Amino acid sequence: MIKKTAAIIAGAGSGHRLGADLPKALVKLIDKTLVEHAVNSLAPVAQLIVVTAPAGFEDQFKSILGDQVKVITGGVLRSDSIRIALAEIGNEYEFVLVHDAARAIASTQLATNVINELASGEQAVIPALDVVDTIKEIDANGYVRNTPERANLRAVQTPQGFVKSVLAHAHASAEDATDDAALVEAIGIKVKVIAGEERALKITTKSDLARAVEILLPNIQREIRVGIGTDAHAFSADTSRKLWLAGLLWDGEIGVDGHSDGDVAAHAICDALLSAANLGDLGSNFGVSDPKYAGASGATLLTESLNKVISAGFVIENVAVQIVGNRPKIGTRRAEAISAISKALNGAVVSVSATSTDGLGFTGEGKGLSAIATALIISAK
Ligand code: CTP
Ligand code: MG
């Protein structure tokens, strides 16, 4: 016989740190409130769901959630809320999941994994993630007391699962605790830790809410911008001048005249990047008269442009540049050029192509070089 599972969704907190003017569980995440998301994720695996609401908001919770769940008034502390909810769950339920409405987008699969462990004989099961930061235990004066071994530490999530009688026993002798497993540990029950998931993040602050949107709608909400840039320089009368093009030095080729190194491909890309982010152009950013940029390499200007684009809140999706001219022949060094530009742009996806113009115009007449570039950037958040 399949054992019955009840779920408690703790939603009675005020959401002080989120700073909305309504309880956190009622805050909207895309199309639904946090508590609706949480109910939806547990509904497929729990035969009864009890939701704790802040006093005064019970009717609002009921009208949003309908008859599929039981809404009750929560307590002052989270553990009070859980204790009150537990009293609503009859003895026909073998297992209880305790979940935070704040972990609104935890997956149904995570809840299933917890229940499967209970079904295989565990009495208490919690999902958790590895910890990336080193954690310090400190004393009341703000000095480090101890540094626990990071490899042994886990960041705990919900839903947590318990054999109901075990959870009831733990809460009967209860103090306050930020998670239920701590109370179960205190009565000497072994708590099994299973793999948690990123999407079970606890929505505490506005940036957590933004992260949850990103998880639910990857890319869709992001701003995508395209930019365009061109540049042209005449070949120099000074035959000793070196040619820099697409981030490379071209031995045996005559260079172009210009304030900087005259790398038309790099400059066109810089303009495309600045244009995509609506940040003006090379001249307005790096001033042709600014001595800082006299002789600046194409790679330097690419990196500086990238930094401006990043500061404006964007990341590069890709850039493409086409070099126009009779010489040099780009094909043999295309891979090298792509790699030089990409390196200056911190690993961005880059493509380099080239064309001659059939004898027409200043490029066709061999008087100089030009380049045209596009850049696609997306907002980082
Ligand atoms: N919770 C509860 N009863 C309480 C306090 C908290 O049911 N007396 C719930 C919250 O609704 C939340 C979960 O416990 O889903 C975890 O708490 P937390 O993330 O701290 O939420 P809040 O207490 O609402 O937020 P804050 O601490 O920022 O005020
Ligand atoms: Mg709280």
UniProtKB/TrEMBL annotation:
Known Pfam families for this protein? IspD (PF01128), YgbB (PF02542)
Task: Identify the Gene3D superfamilies for this entry.
Answer: 2-C-methyl-D-erythritol 2,4-cyclodiphosphate synthase, Spore Coat Polysaccharide Biosynthesis Protein SpsA, Chain A
Task: List the SUPFAM superfamilies hit by this protein, alphabetically.
Answer: IpsF-like (SSF69765), Nucleotide-diphospho-sugar transferases (SSF53448)
Catalysed reactions listed for this entry: 4-CDP-2-C-methyl-D-erythritol 2-phosphate = 2-C-methyl-D-erythritol 2,4-cyclic diphosphate + CMP
Q: Which GO terms describe its molecular function?
A: 2-C-methyl-D-erythritol 2,4-cyclodiphosphate synthase activity; 2-C-methyl-D-erythritol 4-phosphate cytidylyltransferase activity; metal ion binding
Q: Which cofactor does it need?
A: a divalent metal cation
State the pathway, as annotated in the record: Isoprenoid biosynthesis; isopentenyl diphosphate biosynthesis via DXP pathway; isopentenyl diphosphate from 1-deoxy-D-xylulose 5-phosphate: step 4/6; Isoprenoid biosynthesis; isopentenyl diphosphate biosynthesis via DXP pathway; isopentenyl diphosphate from 1-deoxy-D-xylulose 5-phosphate: step 2/6
A biological-process GO annotation: isopentenyl diphosphate biosynthetic process, methylerythritol 4-phosphate pathway
Protein family (similarity comment): Belongs to the IspD/TarI cytidylyltransferase family. IspD subfamily.
Full protein name? Unannotated protein
Q: Which organism is it from?
A: freshwater metagenome
